[in-house]
Design a protein that fits this description.
A four-stranded antiparallel sheet has the order 6-5-4-30, with no helix packed on it. Strands 7-8-9-10 form a four-stranded antiparallel sheet, with helices on one face. Helix 5 (101-113) runs parallel beside helix 7 (133-145) and helix 13 (199-206) runs parallel beside helix 15. The chain is an alpha+beta fold and 565 residues long. A hairpin with a 6-residue loop joins strand 12 and strand 13. The longest helix has 14 residues, at 178-191. The protein has 16 helices and 30 strands. It has three domains: 11-176, Potassium Channel Kv1.1, Chain A (2-Layer Sandwich); 177-260, no CATH class; 264-564, Neuraminidase (6 Propeller).
């Protein structure tokens, strides 16, 4: 192809600021609908169709240098256009304005490759403004993942109301409580109070929140006395109906029904770190399996320096902790959804302290009497009433537990009578209050961990025999004649007294004690499809402290799967 100077094609001179550029008219028409409407004969009826020169008046957000580079490339194949993360943003905006679709898409692809937390808000809004769905959705996933860190930045608060509603309604938004989304709304509105601080905007945004998950609407109202915020909160939370004169001439504002969010699944990691005086400090981290990230939670100062007798049991969205201080027992509850700690009343505390290694099924807390391990109890979490239940056929301790459809499985452990590690598995049916003998493990083990995959497969990992074990066994509970089988060839590290949870259909283990009697810091996951164990990488936070700080008890590294709507 001849260069511009030697080309005999019909040219039009484009005036861009103080610069001019002669470009083949036909090339512009083929490359862009923008120029086709302007320059093609009998297309747009514009005088530019026959003009020898045309001045391009660009809006302030379109870079003139980027436009010149793009038009050079369109007019001459010999002129290279190198799109990189450094110039892709300018090229995308310019190409979108000129309706150069191919270059717009190439620039969007380059921006996806340069995406990070610092530019995610800006690129999300650029993708939205220029109709680049791939860029927009990829950047939006980064925004909702890091929302608490981004919500106060100007890049985020400059988004439109429609874009903010996308964030609020996103199923993957990473928050610990709905209160964080409320703070996002208020911060965004105050950023431009002249145009945003009105009933119509506040109503539409506040109705995107799940007010049932907000811990204390009364407290929010008490610190939100100003109007129109107070009235909008009352309407959104169902405290009052919408007034007919809220929007004169338009009738009562429309209050949409809030869509139910997908259930949020988290795992609470905790361990009791022992100091030089023999006291335990509670370390809590919230793990999000979807994003493979950890977030630190801070227990109240009242718990620091106290002996953590049991690290907890999930009771709905609450986690109960048993604490001892100077021979006095206390029970506290952490509401993970709202981040609120509370002390339990005396009756609650006494009953909870009485249960050893409790398991929650529905409204019941099941476990063995600490003072008499032959007794098996159910505590009603609503009334705190304790009911004796039939004892298990065999008496064991240091067992693993798992729940499938209201059936509690007690797996392995230490046989009190035989004084040996056991392979016994027994199930308690909570609906009919009866025990059932189950197939025994292939290998006896105590202090093992158990978890259930979707579909009903029960897995047990690690534990002690003579030394910590690497093996993993599976029981297909729904088969006609279920039997335990060893799967996966074993974990990479032997471990006992460890945590286990499910992530994306895979069995994940972490922490515990190794054969060298030191804390295991690694995480591994087992893919039932491929039958392979592999090491997991997670963000910083798992390996706090050295091996000397870890207590060798079952309290060391434990986890609780938590789910709430």
């Amino acid at each position: 192809m001849d260069s511009l100077e030697n080309s005999e094609e019909d040219h039009v001179t484009l005036l861009i600021g103080r610069n001019s550029l002669a470009v083949p008219r036909e090339r512009l028409v083929r490359a862009s609908d923008y120029f086709a409407a302007m320059l093609a004969p009998a297309r747009g009826g514009f005088r530019e169709e026959t003009a020898a020169s045309v001045r391009l008046t660009l809006p302030p957000w379109v870079d003139g240098g980027a436009v010149t580079a793009l038009l050079h490339h369109v007019s001459d194949d010999a002129f290279p256009l190198v799109i990189s993360g450094e110039n892709a943003e300018r090229y995308l905006i310019a190409a979108s304005y000129l309706q150069l679709e191919r270059i717009t898409q190439q620039s969007a692809t380059a921006l996806v490759g340069s995406l990070n937390v610092d530019n995610a808000c800006r690129l999300w809004r650029i993708g939205s403004a220029h109709h680049q769905a791939g860029l927009k959705e990829t950047a939006l996933r980064v925004v909702v993942k890091h929302l608490p860190a981004l919500m106060m930045t100007d890049d985020f608060r400059e988004c439109t109301a429609e874009e903010l509603m996308e964030v609020l309604a996103h199923d993957d938004v990473q928050i610990v409580s709905e209160k964080e989304l409320y703070d996002v709304v208020i911060s965004w509105c105050r950023f431009d109070s002249a145009t945003r601080w009105n009933e119509a905007t506040l109503d539409s945004l506040l109705n995107e929140l799940d007010w049932k998950q907000l811990s204390d609407v009364s407290h929010i109202l008490s610190i939100s006395a100003e109007e129109p915020l107070r009235s909008c909160i009352q309407r959104a939370s169902g405290r009052i109906g919408a007034p007919s004169d809220a929007h004169p001439g338009a009738g009562a504002p429309s209050v949409p029904v809030k869509k139910k969010r997908n259930a949020r699944r988290f795992v609470l990691f905790f361990n009791a770190v022992k100091d030089s005086l023999g006291r335990y400090a509670l370390h809590l981290q919230l793990y999000d399996p979807r994003w493979n990230t950890l977030r630190q939670l801070h227990p109240p100062a009242a718990l620091q320096g106290k002996d953590i007798m049991e690290c907890g049991v999930a009771a709905g969205p609450e986690v109960l902790y048993k604490v001892r201080f100077q021979d006095t027992f206390t029970t506290v509850a952490l509401d993970v959804v709202r981040g609120v700690w509370r002390g339990l009343p005396g009756a609650d505390a006494v009953i909870f302290q009485r249960i050893f290694k409790p398991v929650v099924v529905g409204d019941g807390l099941y476990g063995f009497d600490r003072e008499n391990s032959k007794k098996f109890l159910r505590v009603d979490l609503r009334t705190q009433e304790a009911t004796p239940l039939p004892p298990p056929p065999t008496r064991r301790k240091s067992y693993g537990t798992a729940v499938i459809g209201g059936v509690i499985y007690y797996i392995g452990g230490w046989s009190v009578y035989a004084r040996a590690v056991s392979n016994t598995v027994e199930a308690f049916h909570t609906d009919r209050g009866a025990w059932e003998a189950c197939p025994g493990l292939v290998e006896p083990r105590r202090d093992c961990a158990a978890v259930v995959l979707e579909g009903g497969d029960l897995f047990v990992t690690g534990g002690w025999r003579v030394q910590p074990l690497r093996s993993c066994e599976r029981l297909k509970v729904n088969e006609e004649t279920p039997a335990w089988e060893v799967v996966g060839g074993g974990m990479k590290e032997a471990r006992a007294e460890h945590g286990v949870f499910v992530r994306e259909g895979r069995v994940c283990v972490f922490g515990g004690n190794s054969s060298e009697n030191v804390a295991v810091r690694s995480m591994e996951e087992y893919d039932a499809g491929s039958g392979v164990w592999r090491e997991m990488q997670v963000t910083a936070g798992m390996n706090n402290g050295d091996s000397e700080t870890y207590a060798r008890s079952w309290q060391n590294r434990t986890c609780l799967p938590i789910e709430w709507p």
